[in-house]
């Protein structure tokens, strides 16, 4: 099932639940069917006023769908429609960045950071860090917007362990990696919406070749999740002209810290050597 069909089925299941409940919920559904894209980025009070119901009705509607509250439901709405947003629609959100409660980008990032606290205490996070620590070689891979994260991941993980590389479509390694020995390499795919077809097809090819693949992506329905042996689900903020990768950057930083803790002898020696070289070269003012 492609992402567009999955999105449509999710929305229709929500509307169906609303239609068979109260008159108020049917009124909410009637509005959402035509305006769900804008509704996903509205506050509960603004949405209630627009529809002509109470704010508590909006909260109860979100609870009926199985969410803890309006904020959780709104964030899920934003996630599932992200692939549908055109550049023009994103520009509209960028030109209307705030509501009464504050800038929607900053509010979204605050919620993302709260999610990360649970993530770093999870077994999955620890397992991901162990893969990064003990793999013979680590290759970070991405394309387009998410590829902006590659230099950060490569630079800092390379400070605490050797044999860290990156590959994008402009690097020779992108084409040459499939000829390497799969058992010696951990490929870390970073993929966020809108998921580039080129990256998914490349990852599929590498999986068929037997490479170990781990993924950092934004949701369980991401196309790279079934291609990976291990995945970290990291929220990204989409309520601006371009997606914000603040949370993924923090996750990468925390992973590097955990890797250093797992291999202290290697990381400490490496950091000491790099510091000595920086001092010798008079790198810093």
Question: Which helices and strands occur, and which strands form pairs?
Answer:
Layout: H1 3-19, H2 23-39, H3 44-51, H4 55-64, H5 70-81, H6 87-95, E1 98-99, E2 102-103, H7 104-119, H8 123-134, E3 137-141, H9 150-160, E4 164-167, H10 172-176, E5 185-191, H11 197-208, E6 212-217, E7 230-233, H12 246-262, H13 264-280
Parallel strand pairs: 3-4, 3-5, 5-6, 6-7
Antiparallel strand pairs: 1-2
Helix pairs in contact: 1-2, 3-4, 8-12, 9-12, 12-13
Q: Which terms would index this structure?
A:
alpha/beta, Rossmann fold, two-stranded antiparallel sheet, 57% helix, elongated
Run of helices and strands: HHHHHHEEHHEHEHEHEEHH
The CATH architecture designation of the largest domain is 3-Layer(aba) Sandwich
Number of helices: 13
The number of distinct structural domains comes to: 2
Let me know the average pLDDT: 86
Indicate the overall shape. elongated
Q: Remind me, CATH topology of the largest domain? A: Rossmann fold
- Radius of gyration from the CA trace? 22 Å
Largest sheet: 5 strands, parallel
Please state roughly what percent of the residues sit in beta strands, choosing from under 5%, 5-15%, 15-25%, 25-35%, 35-45% or over 45%. 5-15%
Oligomer: single chain
């Amino acid at each position: 099932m492609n992402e567009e069909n999955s999105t449509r089925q999710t929305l229709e299941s929500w509307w169906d639940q609303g239609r068979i409940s109260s008159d108020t919920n049917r009124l909410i559904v009637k509005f959402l069917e035509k305006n769900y894209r804008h509704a996903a980025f509205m506050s509960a009070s603004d949405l209630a006023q627009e529809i002509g119901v109470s704010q508590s009705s909006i909260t109860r509607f979100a609870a009926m769908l199985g969410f803890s509250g309006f904020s959780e439901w709104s964030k899920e709405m934003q996630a599932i429609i992200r692939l549908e947003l055109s550049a023009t629609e994103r520009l509209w959100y960028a030109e209307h960045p705030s509501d009464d409660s504050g800038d929607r980008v900053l509010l979204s990032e605050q919620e993302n950071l709260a999610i990360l606290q649970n993530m770093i205490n999870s077994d999955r996070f620890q397992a991901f860090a162990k893969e990064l620590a003990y793999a013979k070689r680590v290759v970070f891979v991405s394309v387009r917007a998410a590829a902006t994260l590659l230099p950060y991941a490569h630079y800092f993980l390379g400070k605490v362990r050797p044999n860290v590389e990156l590959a994008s479509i402009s690097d020779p390694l992108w084409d040459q990696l499939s000829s390497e020995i799969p058992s010696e390499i951990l490929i870390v795919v970073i993929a966020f919406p809108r998921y580039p077809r080129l990256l998914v097809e490349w990852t599929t090819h590498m999986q068929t070749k037997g490479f170990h693949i781990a993924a950092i992506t934004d949701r369980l329905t991401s196309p790279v999740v079934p291609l990976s042996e291990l995945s970290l689900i990291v929220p990204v903020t989409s309520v601006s002209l371009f997606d914000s990768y603040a949370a993924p950057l923090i996750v990468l930083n925390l992973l590097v810290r955990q890797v250093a803790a797992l291999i202290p002898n290697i990381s400490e020696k490496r950091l000491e050597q790099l510091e000595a070289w920086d001092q010798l070269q008079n790198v810093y003012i």
